[in-house]
Write a structure and sequence with these properties.
Blueprint: H1 10-17, H2 23-30, H3 42-49, H4 54-67, H5 70-82, H6 84-96, H7 98-106, H8 119-122, H9 126-132, H10 139-158, H11 164-189, H12 191-196, E1 197-203, H13 205-208, E2 218-226, H14 232-251, E3 262-263, E4 276-277, H15 279-288, H16 292-298, E5 302-306, H17 308-323, H18 331-339, H19 348-351, H20 362-376, H21 388-397, H22 403-427, H23 438-447, H24 454-486, H25 497-506, H26 512-523, H27 528-545, H28 550-564, H29 568-576, H30 578-588, H31 593-599, H32 619-632, H33 636-663, H34 674-705, E6 711-717, H35 719-722, E7 732-740, H36 746-765, E8 775-776, E9 789-791, H37 792-801, H38 805-810, E10 815-819, H39 821-835, H40 843-859, H41 878-892, H42 904-913, H43 919-943, H44 954-963, H45 971-994
Helix pairs in contact: 1-2, 2-4, 4-6, 4-7, 5-6, 6-10, 9-11, 10-11, 11-14, 15-17, 20-21, 20-24, 21-22, 22-24, 23-24, 24-26, 24-27, 25-26, 26-28, 27-28, 27-30, 28-30, 29-30, 30-33, 31-33, 32-33, 32-34, 33-34, 34-36, 41-42, 41-45, 42-43, 43-44, 43-45
Length: 998
């Protein structure tokens, strides 16, 4: 074919118009002698242009033609241009599947399987596929026959003769026929084994549900029984050999490739259990040991090969166990565990291309449907289907899922499964990843009927359907609950009260009757508030169910909504601010402290919608707000009431940030640096309490003395307060110091200082709706028997003459927090030589510190407390770590400036940097200290009152576990980890504190 130089041939232009991406290569192929009789036939060119990949289809056709004998070649070409059914089927397959093109190139005569077009060929079943495999006598011939059957199946699929559900069912039927053929080959190879046992093959997963992919593991379970007169052990050994051989026949790669992997890992005990069990052995395991996910898997069990009576007995025997799974003791925590997406093992660069496990993927639909089947199938046999689409339709017809939601999920699931089918069909590889290559995306889009701009259309449709699944897969659990109580659509079938209660129980609600009452109160009526809450609740209920206490979350939401529901900004905030609703759900269902703080002033919920709302306020910002409020107030009590209100609001901000950071959200993963979380909480609560004390001090002084107290006055933070390590339940440990102003007598100054201390403490503990701030001055000289406040000179005289080593140790945490800054600095100058003694501690002082620590361990541990789980005084807990660090500070602080800090973690890091403790030991102590601090914070967040040990109540323990990053059902792991980490820390303490290490 010659053309004028510089001009394209008319064939080139036609090829381009028909969808070829490499018209030059296609033109060369059409010029081959083998295609001489058809190259100018317009029917052929149009048929190629109608395929998913015209270039691929033409290359495949050329390979078949070249592989055919000369006389057969012309028969193929003549049939191709005269018989439209063959033309559409053959070219359709060649344009969609390189792998089937390879098969046809190796077995060119198999194209004839596509010629017949009888009615029975349109929808074959197991019997037809068995006939197609009947001549297979070994693994190679089975593979060839399987691919020939698959060729006809794929042809019906790509030509639109079958839809997604029919194609998936046919693939499962072909797998059934293949398993039967493989078992027959295995039996023929070992007739002695076949004579000793009965063996049934039960399909699971997608094969069991008759919704198989083109390339997928075929999940099976084997059931065996001895034949009459045969010893059971020998029979099971024979059955195991047959089953293993059958698996190899399907799975192994030969000269003809492989069929698919046969996977028996869903059997009892997984790969650690015997490959074949008797029926009674199966039942004993399921009744005693099986977990919820195993009953979920058995939903799809279907006998497919081997002894049909034994297979039917198995399915009949396990069915009551499947449909009674929702009544089992661990069903709720198991469901919570299963509901969480398992994407940790998916690389970040692949998760957005995952059709199965990615957000809005196939697994979301399948899990949602299966869970609803387990919950409601115990009382409704119409839901007993292994097919996702059939079960979804039954759920909608029974009112368990809204019809509109079910229709959208059905459409999305069919589209995503169709994408998955066409991706796998191309190279016959097991994958769920959407390709990135432009050519692959183009072929995929065209195979789904997108021709104008295949890549853009495909991406748009895929994202749209995935978005539908993301939006609906959780909501379908909850929308019917709202419909059941709101009763706004009389024509729609809806959940009964019993079914609604069953669903709420399955989702973790301990009191479903109360939950339904809350839902009715929140969603009934035609007001704007009710309408918005009906939109929000399906999502919120899912987040509540993801927590340790869904009931508390829902009750808290009702209380907040009752308080703010008529406030326009509140509902707008939840509706329009994406993060606000989820943040609120996390905060309300994580424990008592944060909701209690919020309920006292619900308008603080606005914090959750502000992008900067969860960032702790700086000390300067807090001081400015607090002191301005005191200045505006009319008297001390009203001033401190405002100050305590600020403290409550800021405590809520801190608890909310901590909970959200610890739990994570859908868009923001949980904070992995637990030390940073602890530091943020400690600094935020410390700054907040310091600002609160500064406000109370200003208010007390103004009330009686105006702007100037007769004595300069400073508050020195001690303990965790001075160390910036306060927890939610910590008291404020302080010392009070004053210095008489010029011309003021010591007596007058002392009376003024004591009066202001008494007034501050009274104001901060007045009974109000806001949490009190308890001031503890027991670390002062002479303890509780000593004066509450001293002058700087009095402190100096006491420490010079009477100070004990424990008091010098206590001063390690001393830091001014409020009042006269210059006086505070003077106190620190007084304290430095005591806490960082020149040349360090003498051996007598070291022995005294060790003696005091040992005495504290034996005397202060609460009676009956488990020393391995006490966060403060227990083995490897806060006290162990802090005393070890403080001993290093007192011994070496005089020569190592980095040790002169009130903060435990900073001092530990400085000691490590100075070579005073090996890095491994420092990391061990730091890990234990952070964990013990988080345990104390968690207990306060969950119970609403402070505690140093793990709670005993199961739901509270689970909530502590969730805060610490443990999934439901893993409380034991949490306690084991705590004991392990603190045991290692104690070993370091034994060496570094009690031992000879210095």
């Amino acid at each position: 074919m010659t053309t004028v130089p510089g001009r394209r041939s008319s064939t080139f232009t036609r090829l381009l118009r028909h969808g070829f991406t490499d018209p030059s290569a296609a033109e060369q192929l059409l010029d081959l002698d083998e295609l001489a009789s058809v190259r100018s036939d317009p029917v052929l060119l149009e048929a190629l242009g109608a395929t998913a990949d015209p270039d691929l289809a033409l290359r495949g056709l050329v390979r078949i033609v070249e592989a055919e004998a000369a006389d057969e070649r012309q028969v193929l070409l003549d049939t191709l241009v005269t018989a439209k059914p063959l033309r559409d089927r053959l070219l359709g397959v060649l344009g969609a599947s390189e792998a089937l093109g390879d098969h046809l190139a190796r077995h060119p005569r198999d194209w004839q399987a596509l010629v017949t077009y009888e009615a029975i060929d349109l929808h074959p079943g197991v019997a037809e596929f068995e006939r197609g495999l009947a001549d297979a006598v070994d693994p190679d011939s089975l593979r060839v026959a399987y691919r020939r059957c698959l060729l006809t199946l794929a042809a019906r699929d790509v030509c639109g003769t079958t839809d997604l559900a029919q194609t998936a069912a046919e693939l499962a039927d072909l797998a059934t026929a293949t398993l039967r053929a493989a078992l027959a080959i295995a039996r023929t190879a070992a007739p002695e084994d076949a004579a000793q046992c009965r063996l049934a093959v039960v399909a699971m997963g997608k094969c069991g549900g008759r919704e198989l992919n083109y390339v997928s593991d075929v999940d099976v379970i084997f059931v065996g029984e001895a034949r009459d007169g045969v010893d059971e052990t020998r029979a099971m050994q024979a059955a195991t050999r047959l089953a293993a051989h059958m698996m190899r026949i399907c799975s192994e790669t030969t000269a003809e490739g492989t069929i698919w992997e046969v996977d028996a890992n869903l059997r009892p005990e997984g790969r650690n259990g015997p490959l074949v069990r008797t029926l009674s052995s199966h039942l004993a395991y399921y009744q005693r040991w099986a977990k919820t996910w195993e009953f979920q898997a058995l939903l799809k069990a279907r006998a497919v090969a081997g002894d049909p009576e034994l297979g039917a007995e198995y399915v009949e025997a396990v069915s009551p166990l499947v449909w009674g799974a929702a009544d089992r003791e661990n069903f709720v925590p198991d469901v919570q565990k299963m509901r969480r997406r398992v994407v940790d093992n998916i690389p970040a660069d692949r998760i957005e291309r995952e059709l199965k496990l990615g957000p809005g993927g196939l697994r979301d639909v399948e899990f949602a449907v299966q869970l609803l089947q387990l919950v409601h199938g115990r009382s409704d046999a119409s839901l007993h289907s292994g097919s996702t689409l059939e079960a979804l339709r039954a759920l909608a017809e029974g009112g368990y899922v809204g019809r509109a939601d079910a229709a959208q999920l059905d459409e999305a699931y069919r589209f995503l499964r169709s994408m998955e089918h066409r991706i796998q069909l191309y190279r016959m590889r097991r994958t769920h990843l959407v390709p990135e290559d432009e050519a692959d995306l183009r072929r995929l889009g065209r195979s789904l009927g997108m021709r104008t701009d295949p890549v853009a259309e495909l991406n748009k449709a895929w994202k749209r359907h995935a978005s539908v699944v993301r939006r609906l897969h959780e909501k379908i659990f909850y929308r019917p609950l709202l419909d059941a109580v709101a009763q706004l659509a009389p024509a729609e079938s809806r959940l009964s009260a019993k079914a609604a209660a069953h669903r709420l129980e399955a989702l973790g609600y301990a009191d479903p009757a109360a939950a339904l009452r809350h839902l009715e109160a929140l969603s009934s009526g035609v007001s704007r508030k009710a309408a918005i809450q009906r939109t929000l609740l399906p999502v919120l209920l899912g987040w509540f169910a993801d927590s340790a206490d869904p009931d508390a979350g829902l009750l808290g939401f009702r209380k907040v909504s009752d308080a703010l529901g008529k406030t326009p900004w509140y509902l707008r905030l939840l509706r329009d601010e994406g993060a606000a609703a989820e943040n609120l759900a996390r905060v309300l269902s994580a424990g008592r402290l944060a909701p209690d703080l919020l309920m006292r002033a619900p308008e603080a919920v606005a914090i959750l919608g502000d992008p900067e709302g969860l960032t702790p306020r700086t000390r300067a910002h807090l001081d400015q707000e607090v002191l301005a409020a005191v200045g505006r107030a009319g008297d001390a009590e009203s001033a401190v009431a405002v100050v305590r209100g600020v403290r409550r609001r800021e405590l809520f901000r801190t608890t909310a940030a901590d909970l959200i950071g610890s739990y994570g959200t859908e868009d923001s993963p949980a904070e992995q640096d637990h030390g940073a979380l602890v530091d943020r909480v400690g600094s935020a609560v410390t700054d907040l309490n310091a600002a609160t004390i500064a406000g109370a001090l200003r208010a007390a002084v103004r009330e009686r003395w105006g702007d100037t107290l007769p004595t300069r006055f400073a508050v020195i933070g001690m303990g965790r307060f001075g160390g910036h390590e306060l927890g939610y339940g910590s008291d404020a440990d302080v010392l009070f110091v004053h210095q008489p102003r010029e011309g003021v007598s010591d007596e007058e100054a002392g009376r003024a200082a004591n009066a202001v201390v008494g007034e501050m403490r009274r104001l901060l503990q007045l009974p109000t709706a806001d949490p009190p701030l308890l001031i503890d001055a027991d670390l002062r000289p002479e303890g509780r028997t000593g004066p509450m406040v001293r002058t700087l000179k009095s402190y100096e005289a006491y420490y010079r003459r009477w100070s004990l080593v424990w008091e010098s140790q206590a001063l390690l945490r001393a830091e001014p927090v409020a009042g006269d800054a210059e006086l505070g600095r003077a106190f620190i100058e007084l304290a430095d030589p005591l806490r960082y003694p020149t040349e360090g501690l003498g051996e007598d002082a070291v022995r005294e510190i060790r003696r005091l620590k040992a005495r504290m361990e034996s005397e202060r541990m609460p009676r009956g407390a488990d020393p391995t789980l006490h966060a403060k005084l227990g083995r490897g807990g806060l006290s162990d770590v802090e005393w070890t660090v403080q001993l290093m500070q007192m011994r070496h602080g005089w020569s190592e400036p980095g040790l002169r800090t009130t903060r435990t973690r900073e001092a530990l890091a400085a000691a490590c940097a100075a070579g005073l403790i090996p890095a491994e030991d420092a990391e061990t102590l730091d890990e234990a200290w952070v964990l013990a601090t988080r345990v104390r914070n968690a207990v306060m967040l969950v119970r609403g009152r402070p505690g140093d040990t793990f709670p005993s109540e199961a739901r509270e323990m689970t909530a502590v576990g969730r805060y610490l990053g443990y999934e439901p059902g893993h409380v034991g792991d949490m306690l084991d980890d705590y004991r392990r980490i603190t045991r290692r820390a104690r070993a370091v303490v034994e060496e570094r504190f009690y031992g000879a290490a210095s």
